[in-house]
Predict the structure.
Amino acid sequence: MNSIDEMVELRHLQTLEGHTDRVWGLAWNPTNTNLLASCSGDKTVRIWEQSSSASFHCKAVLEETHTRTIRSCAWSPSGKMLATASFDATTAIWEDIGGDFECISTLEGHENEVKSVSWNASGSLIATCGRDKSVWIWEVEPGNEFECVSVLQGHTQDVKMVQWHPSMDVLFSCGYDNSIKIWAEDGDDDWHCVQTLNEASSGHTSTVWALSFNASGDKMVTCSDDLTIKIWGTDNLHGQSNEGFAPWKHLCTMSGYHDRTIFSVHWSRDGVIATGAADDAIRLFVENDDGQVDGPMYKLLSKKEKAHEMDLNSIQWSPSEKPLLASASDDGTIRIWECASTS
Amino acid sequence: MVSGLINANPTVYEKKERRIRDHPSDPTDEYAVEPIDDLEIFDHIRDIKDPEHPYSLEELKVLTEESVELDDKRGHVRVTFTPTVEHCSMATVIGLCLRVKLMRSLPSRYKVDIRVAPGTHATEAAVNKQLNDKERVAAALENPNLVDMVDECLAPSYA
């Protein structure tokens, strides 16, 4: 009996107000799970802290660095640094110095809007992507130096998101050209596209907005403007990098659940997939244990209508033991939800 | 743009008369939800100026009353416009003007989709995709030159 395979609902715990424009991105701190970062069209980042009374308050506002929309943010695995990607063509690196956040470096190189940033599992590499159709890989060096080690061309349109694999140094990117590309190093410090998942591989038929991995890293979920989410899998996880690449393949497509663009998808450590979409709703999906003759099937576990007043742009599960979910919206707010059993 | 107008000689049509709207709801109840109809939405956008001519989108029949489809209950609005020529490079600017005007005029609960009329533009799918990618729209609206252009087109629609 799967413990999450019962009736669940999302209970609204708190609405975080403060941003003065749409909120685009969210990131829970991986080591201090009481911290949540949010970034916005108001050109600021806000750091929210959960106090002992369980409610969140704004601990810091990071401003006067980016001059345009901040599209996404990501904590380093140590939880000490925050990277922020902006339409101003730069990626800023902030360090938590005794509770104060200081901008310690700015990564410049993209021609225009940077749309996403991601740290690899060890914190030694950063990836960025943007409207210039390129994906950049940066090496983190001692003394707060960040050096570009590769500029990857391959996407034919703007790249919406980059995400490192949770345990391997393999990079995934997706975007406006409807494809997902997988990038790996050849052992000679050269990065190459090792696989493209597109319409020919049962992929998406419109912009791919986001992707997320399950806890073990052998499955990936992607969401799209084509109103579907897709699950992809790989057989041999450890054949990912040097000793031959194990390709990813399409496992299943969930269609008919969403009726507007799905902007965000996130897989929890307990196996629950959450989506945030332009229909203002949050949906939770879980693997269906019954009758898996033709591979895995997923079912809708719960749906929260009108989770926000406007489009949802980001949805993120807390990395802590607590079943907390944060959502960010065009309505300028962040909402904190608890995933609770109704039985 | 002094040289090379996309459409040098557009056909100009007469504007339709504006209808007088009756207000059935109780004027003393300021919290009453006033239903919006498609003609009201048309009124918000009919006077937007064409990016390259001194005529309104209505006068060029880029928009007609039939351009607006509204599902008020679900809060969905769809505007379908007809570029004056089928390779019109101004189509994305017109679409951006429509989106900005409706963003400013309608309550935020409305979901707006904008598209060119089927078969009226050479790169119809590409134009529609770009107009409905809100991240690209957000980036465009941080471009001061583009915002100036949009504001100039929108000015007559506020009169």
User: Anything to note?
Assistant: Chain B has five helices and three strands. Chain B has one domain: 38-154. Helices of chain B lie at 38-45, 91-105, 124-131, 134-140, 144-154.
